[in-house]
Design goal:
heterodimer; A: about 250 residues; alpha/beta; six-stranded mixed beta sheet; 9 helices; disordered C terminus; B: about 425 residues; mainly alpha; three-stranded antiparallel beta sheet; 15 helices; elongated
């Protein structure tokens, strides 16, 4: 469903943010990208969303090249940002209604919108409240509601549990697991090793623009993810060729 | 199209719920009401003045000349332009030529210090500023808030989003403006002091079209700068600078440049030449012991008409150059459109001057005989503002098309800038 083939991105300032990334997320699978800040996790998501153009390689969603046919590709993917920011002057329902219509689902009535908000665990009293009064946890839930109402088979999440309290994070992950049950392909970037291990079917560790390790849930039953991750971050394990951040100098 | 309307609807709702809209709407309503009220009072005073002058202007046998009076234009309430210069009395004499009375004194003497607060001024200065206030954060604000990335993660083109923002933002500024102006004009016409006919209604409609294009220019410019700026405050600073340049600097610099290209002698030197011609011909008349008073009048008028024609040709050249240069600024084009439509523009002044000379020349024998207590007075002077067709040919069409083209070009530029915007 989500596929990156030799995907690379070098920004205009010369920084190589992503270096020949290969990954695949299948339907009904949660793939977690772990890594420090600047490892290339967000760049990967931005490339799938065509917010930036790849320098080389290809990102595709449902076999549609995101660089060549971005609008068609975006029909098959939904996105939840680290900080879901919505239109503060609108209520939760109005925000959801706007994005539902943007996705061509104008026929959804108030009850349908309420049902979706209920499914993601948003309290009933918040449905008609202005979003500017929402906590981060509530905004993230509404973000998931917006993503699910799109009905896309793939989901991109950029550190969605960052800054959430443990209860809100747990509820959020429950929703993700429910979406996996529905057959969604989910790619999530995160710093949270514990939660990644809890929900991921596969985990990739990124360092300085490269994917340096990938393990399945089954493989991780016999390994200590925390130790592996920390070893990579400390530079103790360098299984891949020289990992580097380069700057073009004139 | 559906997406454009959807984004426009969202923009309208968002603006309607904002404090910014409420403050701007109250300010707009207050200033428009003040403008129409003040200008209406001023018009009434000028009409009273016109009534007094008109009674004195009825030609009578035995008088040494006649007075020409021009009626104030009802649409001068919206664009005063040169109305203060136009609607005064002119003494027409076979020996003194055409002598304008003093300018009419405006009812609000503060007009002499401040710019008359007519609709044209409000559109030119206030509404352009409001358009920028509604547009400066259209793209950069959404980017800062994080909503731009969310919108662009949906299958919508950036051009559609910009078009929706344009339609929504313009609706929020223009609809209240048109409704307020319409309501105020209805109120003014209900007093019975201002009569607007079908032609005035068309002129008013064209003024509103020009105002919409003008506001669209600033709105598109706002979105363009917003899409290219890294932050909303930075976009606002850049836009305020551009606004000052376009609204105030460019028209004035344009006039300076035009004066350098096509210089014009001072009006006082023209008056000195007229007095010189008058004195010379009176001297010749006295020398001839009054044997040929008609010949003296004819000689003076020939000399006078030559001076007027010389001045007219140079003035025409200056005006044409000035218009061409100043049109680089949409504020200048808007001024030309409003004043041409209101009958208070530079073209109307030129037409009036030509009509006065034509009247004097056509009635010269009658005026000379009248001086000799011998005959019927000439017919009263009549002047009508340019018809819409004439105004269109004299430049109104160029300015309207220019405003529409500028708005379209800036909108296209804003859409291209949005295509390059990084939504992260």
């Amino acid at each position: 469903m989500l596929q990156a083939v030799d995907l690379s991105k070098r920004y205009e300032d010369g920084v190589l943010a992503l270096d020949a990334l290969n990954l695949e997320v299948k339907p009904g699978e949660i793939y977690c990208l772990l890594g420090a800040n600047g490892a290339g996790k967000t760049t990967t998501i931005n490339l799938f969303l065509n917010f930036v153009e790849p320098t080389s390689g290809k990102a595709s969603i449902n076999n549609i090249d995101t660089a060549r046919n971005p609008l068609e590709a975006k029909r098959h993917v939904a996105y939840v940002a680290e900080n879901v920011m919505l239109y503060g002057a609108f209520t939760a329902r109005q925000n959801l209604d706007f994005f539902a219509r943007l996705g061509g689902r104008a026929a959804l009535g108030r009850d349908d919108l309420y049902r979706v908000m209920r499914e993601v665990g948003l309290p009933e009293k918040a449905f008609e409240q202005r979003v500017k009064s929402f906590s981060k946890g509530m905004r993230q839930k509404l973000g998931i509601a917006i993503a699910t109402i799109k009905g896309a088979p793939a989901l991109l999440l950029d550190e969605p549990t960052s800054g959430l309290d443990p209860k809100a994070a747990a509820e959020f992950l429950d929703t993700l697991m429910a979406l996996r049950e529905q057959g969604k392909a989910i790619l999530m970037s995160t710093h949270d090793i514990f939660r990644a291990k809890q929900i991921a079917d596969r985990i990739g560790i990124m360092k300085e623009g490269r994917k340096v390790m990938e393990r399945t849930r089954e493989e991780l039953e016999f390994e200590n993810l925390e130790h592996i991750y920390l070893d990579y971050m400390r530079g103790g394990i360098d299984a891949e060729p020289a990992v580097r951040r380069e700057r073009v100098t004139s | 199209m559906k997406t454009v309307l959807l984004v426009a609807r969202k923009e309208i709702l968002e603006h309607l719920l904002s404090l910014r809209f409420h403050v701007c709407a109250v300010m707009m309503a207050a200033l428009l009401a003040l403008s129409v009220f003040v200008m209406f009072q001023d018009y009434r005073v000028r009409m009273e003045n016109y009534g007094v002058l008109q009674a004195r202007a009825i030609p009578r046998a035995g008088e040494s000349g006649v007075m020409a009076v021009v009626r104030p234009q009802p649409l001068s309430i919206l664009a005063r332009g040169l109305d203060e210069v136009l609607d005064r009395g002119y003494d027409i004499s076979p020996y003194l030529g055409i002598t304008p009375h003093d300018r009419q004194t405006a009812s609000a003497s503060l007009f002499s210090i401040f710019t008359p607060p007519d609709l044209m001024y409000l559109v030119k200065v206030l509404l352009s500023l409001l358009a920028l206030l509604f547009a400066y954060d259209a793209v950069s604000g959404e980017k800062e808030r994080g909503t731009l990335g969310l919108i662009f993660s949906w299958p919508v083109s950036r051009g559609q989003v910009v078009a929706g923002k344009m339609v929504g933002g313009l609706t929020v500024v223009i609809v209240p403006f048109v409704l307020m102006v319409g309501a105020l004009l209805v109120a003014v016409t209900l007093t019975g002091d201002v009569r607007l006919d079908r032609s005035d209604a068309i002129r008013l409609g064209l003024m509103l079209v020009a105002a919409v294009c003008y506001i669209a220019i600033f709105f598109a410019m706002g979105i363009l700068v917003s899409a290219r700026s890294s932050s909303s405050p930075r976009a606002l600073v850049v836009l305020l600078f551009l606004w000052a340049v376009i609204v105030f600097a460019m028209p004035n610099i344009g006039q300076l440049v035009a004066a350098q290209i096509s210089p014009l002698p001072a009006a006082e030197s023209q008056e000195a030449l007229r007095i010189q011609a008058f004195a010379k011909n009176r001297f010749l008349a006295i020398q001839s012991h009054g044997r040929d008073p008609n010949g003296s009048a004819g000689a003076f008028n020939n000399e006078y008409d030559r001076l007027v024609e010389q001045y007219r040709v140079r003035l025409e050249a200056l005006v044409a150059t000035s218009k061409r240069v100043c049109r680089l600024s949409p504020a200048a084009s808007l001024t030309y459109v409003f004043t041409d439509l209101a009958g208070t523009g530079i073209g109307d002044l030129r037409r009036l001057n030509a009509a006065l000379v034509q009247y004097k020349t056509g009635n010269l024998p009658t005026l000379v005989r009248q001086l000799g207590h011998g005959s019927q007075p000439p017919p009263p002077f009549q002047f009508f503002p340019a018809s819409l067709g004439d105004a269109w040919r004299q430049g109104l069409g160029v300015d309207l098309i220019l405003l529409a083209v500028m708005a379209a070009v800036l909108f296209a530029a804003a859409a291209i800038a949005a295509l390059r915007t990084d939504p992260r």
